[in-house]
Amino acid sequence: MKSKTILCVDDDKLLLGLVRVVVEDLGARFIGAEDGEACLTVMQNLEPDLLILDVQMEGMSGVDLLERIRQAHPRLKSKVIFLTAQKSLKTIEKTTELGSTTYILKPIDPHRLHARIREVLSPTVNSDG
Asked: Which end of the chain is less congested by CB atoms within 10 angstroms, N or C?
């Protein structure tokens, strides 16, 4: 996954650090943003292979952020994993409507996150089959 770039947006610095360790363990490039505005700034010059978005953040939620990203970048091919403490069906349905590939419940298990990232990116890792 050395050529993959993963952008994680979460207002919890400890969680960003955990995701960084998992992403770097996979050999991918990690970019972190602490809020939606910082993410939008980063995405002016970058299309990551994977977005990992916290659902609940100060200011702009992960759902609102993904809506803004989809409006600004309608051809965006990034896959999306949502991180959430919410188990509500309504939240899961909304994230799916926006093109979320999957979601992971908090607290985050690093091994589960590692496996989920590999699972989401594996079909695009080797296009030779």
From this structure: C
